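Exam prep: given the inputs below (a chain plus 4-nitrophenyl phosphate), describe the expected output before reading on.
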Amino acid sequence: MIRVLFVCLGNICRSPMAEFIFKDAVRRRGEEAGFYAESAGTSGEEEGNPVYPPARAELARHGISCAGKRARRMTAADYGRFDYILAAESANVRGIMRICGDPQGKVHRILDFSARPRDIADPWYTGDFAATYADLCEGIEAFLDSVSPR
Ligand code: 4NP
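Solution:
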């Protein structure tokens, strides 16, 4: 069982989208038994809030539900609970370093697994949730291709 924590700043846009896209991709691959995923934010600003409506709508356009998800802040204890900690962008990696460091090399950006490693822009500011969805799918498919037990 590979355990993955997706991390962004607020845990209301990118990382919850990543969590539910990931669960959908794993299900489509028939690999539910092989993976476990959650998401969290480096900031506590949005703690307890549901997924931001435009992010939820973008998931729904692709037949993916994120019902029940509430934002939470990443904790130092999360470091021991997960095998991979996948950040949306470099600023989130720095936030994770402040929370728990990375003694075991678990922290990467989601798109570090793609052919074109890069940050995922914050749709809270860009407003382009379709671009966020496409970037997340690219990173998640590349990640699954690289770690899948096959
Ligand atoms: P996220 O987006 O990090 O993708 O969840 C944001 C959500 C909230 C804020 C910033 C980014 N904020 O400043 O409250």
